[in-house]
Amino acid sequence: MxxxxxxxxxxxxxxxxxxxxxxxxxxxxxxxxxxxADVCYLMSTTMxxxxxxxxxxxxxxxxxxxxxxxxxxxxxxTLFHRTINNFVxxxxxxxxxxxxxPGNDPITNEANVGISNERGTIAMARTNAAHSxxxxxxxxxxxxxxxxxxxxxxxxxxFGKVLQGMDVVDQISIVDTDSADVPTxxxxxxxxxxxxCAID
Length: 200
Known about the structure:
Strands 1, 2, 3, 4, 5, 6, 7, 8 and 9 form a nine-stranded antiparallel sheet that branches. 14% of the residues lie in helices and 26% in strands. It has three helices and nine strands. It has 200 residues and is an alpha+beta fold. β4 (88-95) and β5 (99-100) form a beta hairpin. The N and C termini lie far apart (45 Å).
């Protein structure tokens, strides 16, 4: 493997852990809004289908960012490149062979809206820089309040949730991985298409 790739992975795979290099600007509100299902997508993966609901009302920057990538078919062919049992599954930034897929400009971190990183929620991955999120996202496998905005951390912006297919997320989270939490067998997002938000 090319020696440049592990260095790139070290940067990219730390996207939803660790402390912030900048201090937080404002603490989250005492009463967080409820997640809205403004637009929904069917994410077809090599391990099954997952329906995602995206909140454009409370998370206008983050939700619209994801919607733009989805509507441009950016995520088709990308991987879930990081899977950690009892934590998160992360994807949306690499294609087969762990080739980085360049995204758009970084967005403003909206984590201070206060929606918590609970099981089944979707949040933006980023580097230690607070406002560095582009295309990568993660799905929380468990409640992860340590990823929420606080007086000491910008946090990770939750912008949606899994409506159906959490069993698929759970299965992805327990696949065999290497020492960098990269699945030994690639898990590919085949497509991400808009669908009804109605639950069967």
